[in-house]
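User: Predict the full complex structure for these chains.
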Amino acid sequence: MNQKELKDLIEFLIEKDIAEFELERGDVKVRIKRANAEANPGPEARYVLAAPAQPAAAAVPASPAAPPQSVAALPTAAPAPPAGEQVEESGVHTIRSPIVGTLYEAPSPGAPPFVKVGDTVSVGQVLCIIEAMKLMNEIESDYAGEIVKRYVNNAQPVEYGQPLFAIRPK
Amino acid sequence: MVVVSGTKLAQEIAASRTEVWRLVQRLRRLGVRIAGRPMTGYQIESAPDLLLPEFLRPALKGTIFGEHIHHYFRIGSTNAAAMQAAADGAPNHPSTRKTRTAEDAAPEGSVYVAEEQTAGRGRSGHGWHSARSAGIYCSVILRPRVAPADVLILSLATGLAVRDAVSEVTGMAADLRWPNDLLLGGRKFCGILIEMNAEATRVRHAVVGVGMNVNQESFPPSLEALATSLRMEDANRRCWSRVELAAALLKSLDREYRRLADPAAREEVRRRFEQHSSSAKGRRVHVEEDGGYEGVTDGLDERGFLKVRTDAGVRTVLSGGVREIG
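Assistant: Here is the predicted structure of the two-chain assembly.
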């Protein structure tokens, strides 16, 4: 998780007025606690980023473990949602783009699309490809369920964090 | 070179002389030149320039690519094999057990290299002409511990790595075409395809695939105007060692990859790309994406995307498919 993503996450928590948040994924652990989230309308928040324990044999360019830090000031106004964001229905999960790029609905032009609205998908199933700089990024589903909405058409550009699909868990 | 009798060979590998003869026939089909001398035995005349792990490994000590090299004489696509292995844990490999995780079975730095591809792949369903033992068809598995967006620069860095390797081995200076095609005399001799599997904040694995034309002497008519090889661009039409080129390529890719997480190196990649790409600035191009448009290239932005000046202002090219015009 980089600084930008962390910032986006915090902004999201402020926007939704969530007081406490914890995420553990792989070797990254993030815990965010907002002091006086309800009592204090001025969003004065603190977060602690647990530095992941890097495997000793990491002979590869690991991103340097970010030192724990605290942020004193955060934007007072809730930030505008990312471009293309739509109101999410409750009970529906949104798959977002992890990178900027061009969306492809099929593995090659003319091939049938990976998925379409109404399909039931499983966790890990490829939903689409986002291409940036000739790097093809397979976007997998984080959820099992039915695709109830697709936000972006084939060969359209997408922004970082833009919603791609809505999935209703089964 | 030594002449070894069929009987001795048969004893050493505990097989019949007929089996030895059959194996020799097979090696000959693979390009090994073996003379058969009726009363004395077999003699190897020349070992082929095959991309065997035994040949590559000594040159790759100290890099992440020296440990797990998988060589295929014939495969559909090295990228497909590497992507599959990275996700599933190398189902086609005999050493794989169901209980092993994908990361154990196909660790970072695993190399998939082939003499021939029957379904070589390029961007958006384009094929890659992959004649037997004439080119280098090589894919590697990486598991970068950076955010997906920070992996993009690898696309430019891989092109630079190939350029360095070619320059080191052949002395030829390739021209880069954004984001990572490599050209000599205006024609393409190397293409790169990177495939990635990532969550929102974490990259599970990325596969970097390189297809390089090395010793081809000609191409089918449909590719003649677009494609070239290192041999065809050499004044003396020399045949280059693919082993030497592949090793140089993996070494320079290792170098570029280690610096991926360093923001200063990223800036440097951008600068070097602009320096070695004649088309990065001031060239009239057609851009395929977003319905197609034309403009003049204007260098790279801070993320490494190509900028194109159009009548309606500067636009950013996200994917690939940039073609020079008139």
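The radius of gyration of chain B is 22 Å.
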